[in-house]
Amino acid sequence: AGKNEGKGQYRFFDPALSNTLNSRARLKQSMLEAIERDQFTLFYQPRVDVHSGELLSMEALIRWQHPELGIVSPAEFIPLAESTGIIVRIGEVVIDQACAQLAAWRDAGLRLVPVSINVSPKQFLRGGVQRQLSAALHRHRVPASLIEVEITESAMMGDHDEILAELAALRALGVKLHVDDFGTGYSSLSQLQRLKMDVLKVDRAFTSELGNSKEGKVFFQAIVSMAHALGMSVVAEGVETGEQLDILRGLDCNEVQGYYIARPVPAAGMQDMMQRRFLLGAPQVASAENSA
Ligand code: C2E
Ligand code: MG
Ligand code: MG
Ligand code: MG
Questions:
Q1: What distance in angstroms lies between residue 235's CA and the mean position of ligand 4's atoms?
Q2: What is the pLDDT of residues 190-220, one digit of tens each?
Q3: Which of 44, 61, 263 to mutate to test the pocket of ligand 1 (most atoms within 8 A of CB)?
Q4: Each residue of 75-124: pLDDT tens digit?
Q5: Which residue among 49, 193, 236, 283 has the highest number of C-beta atoms inside a 10 angstrom radius?
Q6: Atom of ligand 1 minimally distant from the CA of 239
């Protein structure tokens, strides 16, 4: 704003733009330092069977433990990491930490369940994920069956050859493939079945509609029955209330994830849940979001 205000005439850059560039450059630089200084860490959120509440898997969600800012959420840095390509290096950290954590839990004698990793399409270029993942699995002596890969529905659009090739390579490696944020993109279920996706994770926008409208329930029901007919299983993301859980049980959704079951926690907190194993019985995991 105000480029004709007189005083600023000698400037080449809009100050807002130049600030943005500066802070983008700063953020980019501090992300690189964060990799070197080991500031990225994984939180884990359980995914459980809708009926029994048995822990079936857990999603690894990255956090940046910033020395001044505290815990920074991925929404703050993943977009810039993607547009600068740094996501390839951050993704490698995530893959290595997830495999290292599985190995540590194995060595501690815990009954293991798979860890689900989020990947961006940028990481798929030149076979990156498959290469990084096989190396990490080998390094930590962890079987590929303990890793699942989540890719958002919108990232899968466009049939990029690299994405198709990488999905095939991951499948050959033995990892299960999940469609993340399903319902927010424009893919068809038959297309996803052709890509041999194993699991649909329905976006939490649809879960939150469940108690609110008849349409929300009908929509979810349609997804579940089509997914099942095509051999895919269904996870509801963002389950926050007991009412949503009850509806999802009635709809024959397979698995649930969300604050009602547990918030994402550091590895130590996940270890407790691995030992409890059934997470929907009493004692319920405390959740600030609802009053069950
Ligand atoms: P996502 O993969 O769809 O992950 C689910 C997000 O929903 C997580 O946010 C999780 O904390 C949040 N969530 C879980 N249950 C509930 C609930 O009941 N209610 C509400 N309101 N939210 C819930 P988070 O951890 O902030 O991650 C946001 C996004 O950042 C992820 O969405 C994923 O797309 C991306 N992301 C996270 N970790 C990574 C990573 O390691 N690599 C990449 N490339 N992306 C990541
Ligand atoms: Mg995810
Ligand atoms: Mg999601
Ligand atoms: Mg998401």
A1: 13
A2: 888 888 899 999 999 999 999 888 999 999 9
A3: 61
A4: 999 999 999 999 999 999 999 999 999 999 999 999 999 999 999 988 88
A5: 236
A6: 18
